[in-house]
Design goal:
Layout: H1 3-9, H2 17-24, H3 26-29, E1 51-58, H4 64-76, E2 80-85, E3 91-97, H5 99-112, H6 125-130, E4 138-146, E5 154-158
């Protein structure tokens, strides 16, 4: 069936011909999964041989929403590294990758995430008194370049349960 035949069958709608063709005929023009070309994965380290590493300290990363947001953003920016939740209550995030991705991740960690607005769990009165003055925040501890990448992908380790 041609485009003109489809136009004559349907009701007149205020839609341009290109939009109509995109909506009606769009599925026929797509590639099947086996016909799509296979793309190689993007390299995690810089072709110049320099990898940028950043280390962040977070006071409280026990909330699952924050840890998932950090994990998925690191994977989305093609960063490798680890996120370690320590028994003392604070967490360390180490990421390595290209300069542009590290800059985006730094902006996310230090400016975009509102660390103080995390929903706090029900604590006893003694714990609330001890943590009353402590504000949840993220601090950049170190950022620099290394000659060789140490991580293959981003992993999460939790050790605050035992």
């Amino acid at each position: 069936m041609t485009f003109e035949q489809l136009m004559s069958i349907t009701k007149p709608v205020r839609m341009s011909n290109s939009n109509f063709a995109r909506i009606v005929l769009g599925g026929a023009e797509m590639c099947t999964p086996c016909a799509r070309p296979v793309q190689p994965p993007l390299p995690l380290d810089d072709p110049n041989g320099v990898t940028i590493v950043s280390v962040y300290r977070i006071n409280d990363l026990s909330h699952e929403e924050l840890s998932l947001q950090i994990y998925y953003c690191a994977m989305g920016y093609l960063l490798a590294g680890c996120m370690v939740g320590l028994k003392d209550g604070f967490s360390i995030v180490v990421v390595s990758g290209k300069q542009n991705s590290i800059d985006k991740f730094r902006r996310l960690m230090l400016k975009c995430i509102n660390w103080a607005a995390v929903k706090k769990s029900q604590n006893t009165e003694d714990e609330e008194e001890n943590k009353k003055n402590e504000v949840n925040k993220c601090v950049l501890l170190w950022e620099g370049s290394v000659a060789k990448a140490s991580f293959k992908r981003f992993k999460e380790y939790k050790s605050w349960c035992c």
